[in-house]
Amino acid sequence: MPSRKDISSILIIGAGPIIIGQACEFDYSGAQACKALKDEGFRVILVNSNPATIMTDPLLADATYIEPIHWKSVEKIIEKESPDAILPTMGGQTALNTALTLDKKGILKKHNVILIGANRTAIDKAEDRQLFDETMKAINLETPASGIAHSMNDALDAQKKIGFPCIIRPSFTMGGTGGGIAYNIAEFKNICEKGLELSPTNELLIDESLIGWKEYEMEVVRDCEDNCIIICSIENLDPMGIHTGDSITIAPAQTLTDKEFQIMRNASFKILREIGVDTGGSNVQFAVNPENGKMVVIEMNPRVSRSSALASKATGFPIAKVAALLSVGFTLDELKNDITGGLTPASFEPSIDYIVTKIPKFAFEKFPQASPKLTTQMKSVGEVMSIGSNFQESLQKALCSMEEGLNGLNSLRSNELDISKEEILNELTIPGPKRIFYVADAIRNGWSLSKIHSLTKIDYWFLDQINEILEIEKNLINTKEKELETSYLRTIKEKGFSDSRISELIGSDEDSIRNLRKDLGVLPIFRRVDTCAAEFATSTCYMYSSYGGKCESNPTTKKKVLVLGSGPNRIGQGIEFDYCCVHASLAMQEEGYESIMVNCNPETVSTDYDVSNRLYFEPITSEKILDIIDIENHEGIIIQFGGQTSLKLAEILSKKGLKILGTDVDAIDRSEDRERFQELVNKLSLKQPSNATAKNLDEALVKGEEIGFPIVVRPSYVLGGRAMQLVNNLKELEKYLNEAVEVSNSKPILLDSYLTDAIEVDVDIVSDGTNIEIGGILQHIEQAGIHSGDSACSLPPYSLSDKIQDEMKDQAINIAKELNVVGLMNIQFAVKNDEVYIIEVNPRASRTVPFISKAIGVSLAKVASKAMIGKSLKEQNFSSNLPKGLSFVKEAVMPFDKFPHVDPILGPEMKSTGEVMGIGPNFGEAYAKAQKGANKILRKSGIVFVSVKKSDRKYLDDFAPAIIKCGFDIVATSGSARYIEALGYKVKKINKVNEGRPHVVDSILNNEIDLVINTTEGTQSIKDSASIRQSALRNKIFCTTTMFGASAVIEALQNSEDKWTYNTLQEINKL
Question: Model pTM greater than 0.85?
Answer without folding.
Answer: yes
